Amino acid sequence: MKETESKITIFTDGSSRGNPGPGGWGSIVVASGSKIEITELGGAEKHTTNNRMELTACLEGISHTPRESHILINTDSSYVINGITKWIHGWKKNNWRTKAKEDVLNKDLWVKLDSSVADRKVEWKYVGGHIGILGNERCDHIATDFADGNKPLLYVGSLGNYDLPNVLDVSHNETSLIKKKSGSSKSSAKAYSYISMVGGVIETHKTWAECEKRVKGVKGTKYKKSLNSVDEAKIIEEWGTLLF
Questions:
Q1: The pTM is what?
Q2: 13, 45, 60, 231: which one is catalytic?
Q3: Would you say residue 182 has pLDDT above 90?
Q4: Known catalytic membership, residue 90
Q5: Is residue 37 among the annotated active site residues?
Q6: Could you say which of 11, 70, 83, 225 is the most buried, measured as most Cβ atoms within 10 Å of its Cβ?
């Protein structure tokens, strides 16, 4: 990137009430130039999944940037990051089929995302969810509002008039994410999420009921509880190495 070239920062998040169920997505595009401009985006779908909303949030954010842009995307979705930077190469090589010879889930969105990043320089950064990162928290609010059938007011304008003037601050206390109560065990600790893998396809779930519905009675599945966003990312990373 040239020293005079500006980088566009995007925050994204997706949500669904049920998996599948009503869903929503949110993105914040922060474009630097003579002044910093903010564009909040969001939308809803009546019947969708959390992963589809995460993908849609990234797609919509990227679509609001010029081609050949240099973009930094901050997302709490390990599914999206691993998919677009690692797994997609094997999927394309195998004609969009997994190692288990099944069609790649959400192929339509992956194809669009692959096309969108082809003519842009995109960096992907994992940020933990629900740990106070302003951009991520705001996207979460937008996504959940749309998932709940509400229509939040979306801001478009200069950073100077934005309610989150420190939106680009992604600092947080890593130790607070992995610190566990003395004497507690992983089996009894409160779940952050549940991860399942069926037929080589990984999905995340907010509740055990959603995870159980997907894996119950299906042979050759994997499922596991995560305690926080860092733990979730680690599990997905480990399982992703099994796909190709």
A1: 0.73
A2: 13
A3: no
A4: no
A5: no
A6: 11
